[in-house]
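Subject: two folds for Thursday's group meeting

Dear M.,

Sorry for the delay on this. The cluster queue was jammed most of the week, so I only got both jobs back this morning. I'm pasting them in the order they finished. Each block is the input sequence followed by the predicted structure tokens. Could you check whether the formatting survives your parser before we put anything on slides? The first protein is the one we discussed after the seminar.
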Amino acid sequence: MEDKECIHTSTCPIKDETDPPYYGHLARSSIALILAGGRGSRLHHLTDWRAKPAVPFGGKFRIIDFPLSNCVNSGIRRIGVATQYKSQSLVRHIQYGWSFLDGRFKEFVELLPAQQMSGESWYEGTADAVFQNIDILRRHNPKYVLILGGDHVYKMDYSKLIADHVKKSADMTIACLTIPQEETSGFGIMSVDEEWRINSFTEKPKPEDATPIPGKPGQALASMGIYVFNASFLFEQLVRDHNEKDSSHDFAKDLIPYQVPRFRIFAHRFIDSCVNIASSGEPYWRDVGTIDAYWEANIDLTSVIPDLNLYDDDWPIWTHQEQLPPAKFILAKKGRLGQAVNSMVSGGCIISGSTVCNSLLFSNVHIHSYCNIEESVILPNVEIGRNVHFKRVVVDKNCVIPEGLNVGFDREEDRKRFYVTDKGITLITPEMLGQRKHFVK
């Protein structure tokens, strides 16, 4: 096969778009910007003191570790993280856990706090968050810009997404997945032609107004909030949108609807670049934006074959690794046996004369004797006193659970003190226990 010229430079001979070296070249020519400034209000009290991307997940990770790991594993080593809402724990996590990239090779994870760069306002929308960092992006002179959300759990090879973008000579490419039509009110919904060029895009339509996928009634094509732009095109569009007085400066509400009828905007199927296939045969992607979804995604990790594979050496999830002793299970007395079954238990945990079943324990959880913990997610640095019984509970960081507390068996009684979802998942935070961990008047 004859060499053919890269469509964006005359100095980049390549053999074929599917060659792995081509993917690596595109990744090195790209910069990723992760939008991590949102609160995530549907997680209720879990995001009272932290941004959603900083919420712990999976025993030792935080949600933002997934898009960050996808970038590094894809060969994208120039990454910006735009922060805004209560970002201190997120900033600390990135400083501690993501400082291993080497600046000598122009690799970095750069924190980009809202700084009122273009006026007196903070980030007003997703597009405005990028616009306010446009000078920083230009300084790195990328050919492609990858825009990501920081609040979803999934594994994806972004280099394949970028290669698909270049192969189609697109101005912008949107990663998409298939969802039930009754869920369309939470997504940007698009329709495409036979070449996967987008011919319509509607932000969060009612299910009855959403365009179904041809030949697949009851299903719709949804944006994942993952975008690839030619850098020069993105900068041009951000400046144009910034000068539109009536714009809300949001990609899904403003930029994409403007661009679709005027430019080459394509969809990319998630299944073509996903790394993790769930047991259902569908690519794994979770919006853990509600307490129920958060609980379900964590508890799924304790199953025999979880939908999300955290044991994949070929696509590891990187994070800040605390130096902790191994988990410890003590006492082997009748009625006072320290054990955990069908569970994940992180480093630093001590289970003393209690039983943990179908649960996930983050680091440094200490459970005293005569407790029974079932189907529960216990975040780091929690101490549980004697004779505590939990079922379908999420416990926030730093809680000290008093002796004899029973939660998860009487919803009405639980609602008097804690937050209980419609599906019966109970959330406990230090403030609900009268424990003041945040010294704010």
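Second protein, same layout:
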Amino acid sequence: MNMAMLLLANARIVDGTADHPGDPVNVLVEGGTIREVGPKVASAKAKVLDLGGRTLMPGLIDCHVHVVAGLADLGRNAALPDSLVMSRAIGIMQGMLMRGFTTVRDVGGADFGVKLAAEEGLLPMPRLVISGKALSQTGGHADFRGRFDSRPPQAVGPFPLGALGRICDGVDAVRQASREEIKAGADFIKIMANGGVASPTDPIHFFGFSREEITAIVAEAAAAGTYVSAHLYTDEAIRRAVECGVHSLEHCNLIGPETARLAAKGGAVAVPTLVTYEMLAREGASLGFPADSVAKIDTVRLAGLKSLEIMQEAGLTMAYGSDLLGAMHRHQSEEFVIRGRVLKPKDVIASATHIAARLCRMEGLIGTIAPGAHADLVVVEGNPLADLSLLTRQGRHMPVILRGGAFVKRKALN
């Protein structure tokens, strides 16, 4: 069964490389891999699914998720038993897959066991690229103890599955934490280099870690052949992170033009996550998001669209991210529409296909419809380049979704 052949006929490819759908082609899938793509590709051995000129996209990629964040209150989430967190994470990931996201990059929380569960395919879940636990200083964006909680942070693992991060202070400690996360299966290292909305004691403008600590973490990641991703909002914090060698810049709502140009020149990638602030402002309080955190939302929310313009003009590469928590995960695809208010549809789609694939270090394997790539494919009714909302509504306009050549959704094509 693993080597079954499937021919997707009369497909018009939309992959973020052109501003119009491609001419009809056939895509031959064998097992979990795309074998051939072209107008005359055929096989007598393959089952044929005629798409009738419908849009065919590579599986979408979200580069900023927290699949273990079943609760919006991240402090409470970290106190839940691992079994409950994993059960909820499976549901969260299945929802992502049914929205067409066949790969997600977890930037704090998921461990190697969650990644293995996704790879084993016992339940339908997206591919996972993980940072393990995000690194935070005392009082930083992964410290949820509150002002009156003086208990020492947990110093050694295993850490609760529901905890998005771990606390470490000083150059020696951050080196050890980086090495431990890489040993435990992290694909890259995530740090909290600015204050955040969800955490209780760090206003947005706070710096996270010293330059010496960030530089040490970057060196450890480089020694392991990977990179550092950083939670960042303010222009000064972003500039400092870029100067220290950070590659992946998460959020970036308050970035300025000069810093954006510096980041672009250094080959950094930004991962905006505008949808999470829209939804936190709308639904956060009713879902248990702490009042102190709700009060911080507009500081970054109102600057979001302007940041896209600044980064686009500077030539700073942007990948797709959502960063949703708890019941708000269902809004994951709305980021397409929000970005489409400022950016061209082709560029928005590119952020969730080939650009995201490069950031995941899986270029040529995901985010593309080409020979040798994983057969992660999404059929869309209509043209997303003309209407990005076709990628929303919980996959309503996606009658067919394949992950590794296997159907995870298959509705009749009229």
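Two things I noticed about the second structure. The radius of gyration is 21 Å. The chain has two domains: 5-59+367-410, 60-332.

Cheers,
T.
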